[in-house]
Design goal:
alpha/beta; Glucose Oxidase, domain 1; eight-stranded mixed β-sheet; 2 domains
Amino acid sequence: MSVPLNPVVAEVTARIAARSATSRSAYLDRMAAAVPSRPMRAGLGCSNLAHGFAACAGPDRLAVKGVSVPGVAIVSAYNDMLSAHQPFLEFPAWIKDATRQAGGVAQFAGGVPAMCDGITQGRAGMELSLFSREVIAMATGVALAHDMFDGALLLGVCDKIVPGLLIGALAFGHLPAILVPAGPMASGLPNAEKARVRQAFAEGKATRDDLLAAESASYHSPGTCTFYGTANSNQLVVEVMGLHLPGASFIPPGTPLRRAVTEAAARRVVEITAQGDQYTPIAQVVDEKSVVNGVIALLATGGSTNHTLHLVAIAAAAGIQLTWDDFSDLSAVVPLMARVYPNGSADINHFVAAGGVQFLIAELLAAGLLHGDVSTVAGPGLDRYRQEPVLDNGVLRWRDGLSQSGDLDVLRPFADPFAADGGLRMLAGNLGRAVIKVSAVAAEHRVVEAPARVFTTQEAVAEAFRAGELDRDVVIVLRQQGPRANGMPELHGLTPSLSAVMSRGYSVALVTDGRMSGASGKIPAAIHCTPEAAAGGPIALIQDGDLVRLDAEAGRVDVLVDPDVLAARLPVDAPALDSEWTGTGRDLFAALRRSVGPADHGASVFGPAVPDLVPAS
C-alpha cells in the first residue's frame, strides 16, 4: 500500500522542479543528444581507437578493439596516504574481472586527487580543500572525455571527493555511473575519550604525547574515519539518492563482502548502459526527487553541514536549483533519528549495527518522508534500499534489514526520534544568511547574546584563548574565511578551545564566513555566513565589543548596532591579495578563488563569474 507523501516534502519538491524547469530541461536535452546507439568508442577514428587499446592485452584488447561490448571507466581517488582511500588499490583488478565476466570491458580511465582535511586542518593546505572539489570534478571530466566509455564506476569516499566525482560525472549525464565506496575502519578509541583528551590538550592539561596517542588510537587502520563527518555523510546521502548499490556504504574494507559488492557494482554498470535493456544514466538518477531524498537523509541523521554547499553544487550540475530555504523547510518536518559522534558518543559502526541505512530508509519511507518512486542504480524505486547485502555460502544476496532498532541510543524510529527536527537550521538577520547545526548543541546553549571579539585568523583565536582573553561571555567573529577570501577552510580545530571556554561556565558562540564541517560539535556556530566579508558582507562591519545575538531557535543572527551606525561603517580588514595568497600551492588556485560563487550557491566556480576580488579600502 502506497504511503502518502508528506505535504511539505511534496511542496518543496514541486517548487524545486518549478524553479528548475528551464535549466533542468536544457540539461536533459543535452544529455539525450549525447546518447549513442552503439558503444561510444565506435565513433572514433582508427588512429584514435588504436591509442585507446594500445596498452591493453588479451581479451580486453580484443574487446576494446572490437567496439561491440560496453566500455566501463574506472575513475579512482586511490592513494595510500589516506586511510579511507588506501583500500581502493585492489579494486581495479576486481572490477576488470567482474566487468569482463558480465560482457563488458573496464579500463582505469583516470585518477583524481584526494585531500585529507584531517591532515591539513589548521594548515595552509586547508585553504585548497574546498577548491579541490572543482579540481576533482574537472579531473573526472578529463577521464570521461575520451569517448571510450559507456558507463563509469567512481571510487571515492571523503569530503570533497564524492561531490567532485558526482559533479564531473553529471557533465556526462548520458552515462550510467555507480559510486563505489571503500568502507569504514574498525572502531577505535571511544569518541567521548578522544574529545576529552583534545580539550585537555587545549587547556594545557595533556601533553602532545597524550594527544598523539589518543589520535592514533582513533585513526588506526585502513578505512574511513568512523565519526559522522562529511565522509560518512557522503556515503549515507548518496546511498539514499540511489547512487550506490543497496547497503554498500559501510561494509568494512578487507572483507569478502566488500569485494563481492564491489564486483556486483561492476556487473551492474554493464547492465545499465545504453547497450542493455535497463539503461539508467546518472542524469535520470539525480533528479529533483533524489536530491530532496538526499537532503532528508542528511537532516534525519544530523549529517555534515558541508552538504549545504555540496548538495547545492551537485544539484546545479544536474540543472536543479536547490536553495538553503529548501533545507530549512524540510528540516522543520524531518526528525532527528540518529545520534552518531559528534551528535552522540556512537560511531558509524554502531549506527550500522543498530540498523543503519536500511532501517533509516524503511522508517522514512513508511512516514512518507522519502520519494519512493525514483530511479536508482539498482533499479526502479527505493524499496531495494531497505535491504542489506550478505554472503550466503560465498554467494552475494540481499536480505531485509532490521525492522526494529538494535540500539535506541544510536538509531530511533520515526515515531520516537531524538528531536522533532533535523538539527540543521538556516539563520538570517542583519549579518546576512548562515547555517547552524544544532543536533549536538544543548538546548540551553542555542541562544547566545554577548560582546563580539573579532578575528581574521584561526591562529589569533588560539593566541587569545591561551592568553585567557576569551574567559568571558563572548561571540567569536572569525571573518575573511569565506571562499573568495581564502578558500573557506574548515575551522573545527577551534572546537576544543571554545569547548573549554564553555566548560568554564561562559556563554560562547562562533559567527564565521568559514566552515566547521561534519565535526561541528557542542558550540553554537553560525557558519557559511553570506555575503562573506571579502565580498563586502555585513560580517565585515562588526567591531570588538558589539553585541551579537545568535538565536538558533528563532533562526536569527544579528549584530545589535543601530542600523545608521552600521551603515556608516567601512570594513576594517581586507582579504589577501593574490600576491599574498601563495605558498603550499595556493597561487595555483588563485583563478578559482577569483571566480568562486557564494556559499548559498554551493561555493562553486561552475556558474556565472563574479567580479575580481578587490581589497577593501
